[in-house]
User: Fold this.
Amino acid sequence: MSYAALGAGLAVIGAGIGIGQIGGKAMDAIARQPEAVGDIRANMILTAALVEGAALVCMVLAFFVRAAG
Amino acid sequence: MTAFRKFWIILIISAFGAASAAAQTGHENHPREQAGEAAHPAGEAQERPGAAAHPAEGHGPCGHSVSVEPEFNAGDNAVHHIADANALHIVGDVYLHLPCILYAPGHGWTLTTTAAFHAHHHGNGTKSKDGYVLVHGNVMRLKNPALARGEFDVSDYAHQEVDANGKVKTVYNALINGNCEPLDAKTTFDGGIMGGGITSFYDFSITRNVFTMLLTALILFLLFRAAANAATRREHQAPKGLQNFLEPFVIFIRDEVAKPNIGPKYERYLPYLLSAFFFILGLNLIGQIPFFPGSANVTGNISVTIVLAVLTFLISTFSANKHFWEHTLWMPGVPAPLKILILTPIEVLGLFLKPFTLLLRLFANITAGHIVILSFVSLIFIFGDAGKSVGGSAAGAAASIPLTLFMMTLELLVAFLQAFIFTMLSAVYIGTAIEEPHHH
Assistant:
């Protein structure tokens, strides 16, 4: 169970770095081109959702490892 | 104006205080629990029998009574509250009785309602009906074939941890005429992630999740029929009222989600996208309500999100054109060994991974939010030592109310965001499937 929790935590590190990059770059882009804020926001959410997907797969795997005992 | 605002702040705080006090007394004045604790000294109540070899010394032949909680476990409490159940609990011992449609091979169909089980506190039934009992609001089946017909009085339920092939499993027992009758687990199609699994019977009942889904569908139907009537009646006029409230959402999904991602053929897929968006949004919002019409965690149930993702998968796969399949299975312009070894396997895997992440994202986001809220509410019971210390629970309430309020606000955002992301990604997947080839 503790290994599963460790794995879930490591997955969150990766997803956190990824989503942080997306958010930071989106802020940069909005600062440079405030008129493109709508497009940037939509793509930011989409990309963040895709990165999140990888973290969620890890989370569910951790859940299964825990359930399997 | 400021006096008015102060009045509201005081009203909200006192309402929360009253709610936590009510939860406290509800926990304290539980007669079975106190009777159980009197029977078993407090020291013994904390030990857990590990394996079947030691069948619960000092806890009766069946293990722990379900009414006696040896220690407050926030994790178990949270999972119990977000899981689906057959009985819809309103307040105290009042339940909204829902139909039960049960089938067991070799036994046939059983049609009844949860009223037949005479549920009392904690959703535990006091009667068995045709071999079925109600434990913690869930229908379970008695293993003993002698009890498979007719009604029997159930005095109590108990659970114990047994060692099955190296895995510790919780087994439930019912006490009937002083005998210990083992129970089969409830059925769920999620393979036991939220407890249960496929057992000796199939449960097609209108559970509280199904009830909430039907309720949400009805509410959406009434709202949108009224808005659609208003739109046809008041054509070429500015929208007002309900239509004015709903139209921006519809226009948003059409102009920001469907058109840019699907392309010129967006109108074919707009009904599905709008239905998915409003259905998920409605379920997310109704799941936020902590009492009667809400209280069911529908989009946080993996079976529901599986069906939604399978719908997107079917629609995008069956509307995919030749161009899409060519680029998935035999990417042009890439050397053949590379295609066979790497590209095609990855693309085929991606075909199934896309709906898989779609279902997991919705499920995990809603479930995680609900677990966090329930953990914050559990602070009241943890600080209050499960109803023994009033001062501790007041401190717990003081910590838990702002945290819960904050989390609820965040979940309101997540409710909209997840409905939007599901619709958006569905549109993207459909868009990639029907994209026309570029000539370059």
User: Anything to note?
Assistant: Chain B has a mean pLDDT of 78. Chain B touches chain A at residues 166-168, 192-193, 256, 260, 356-357, 360-361, 364, 417, 420-421, 424-425, 428 (CB under 8 Å). The first strand of chain B starts at residue 64 and ends at 65. The CA atoms of residues 48 and 202 of chain B lie 31 Å apart.
